Fold this protein.
Amino acid sequence: MINLDSTVPNCLNFQWWELFVTDVSSYKPDKRRFSDVLFKEFLLLPEIEQNKILNNLQHVLQLVQYGRDVLKIPIPIASGWRSKRLNILIGSKASCHTDGMAIDPLLSGEKLNAFLTLFTQHSGGLGKGLNQGHIDILRRPPYRRWTY
């Protein structure tokens, strides 16, 4: 089992708890409480599924880490892994988040544009919202790009 306070291997600017946040409102002083609830749902999954999700999260987080390194800006995460239950509650039918294959960086304006520009040749999905982006590692041609 991972320690939520430990750093993610190869992504030393991130701690595991950041990948179990799923709401912008979580970035308040009590952010850990929501992360812990989501993490408890994660722990109910079979170990083989947990390992697959953690591997996927680490892979997509390396892309976000690359963005932090190149742009030299902090990139908080608005959404990382989501349970299927939570995904339904927020109105999503299907999502790469439930397999740990997507992260939504909490950026807007020029910072979000600069982040997404780094990945113009990325073979996964890229989305652009008003106050956050989306990057996933689902490789399914053609390259998926969207705004929301």
Q: What stands out?
A: The domain at 7-147 is CATH 3.30.1380.10 (Muramoyl-pentapeptide Carboxypeptidase; domain 2). The chain has a mean pLDDT of 87. Residues 47-71 form the longest helix (25 residues). The helical segments are 31-43, 47-71, 84-89, 109-117.
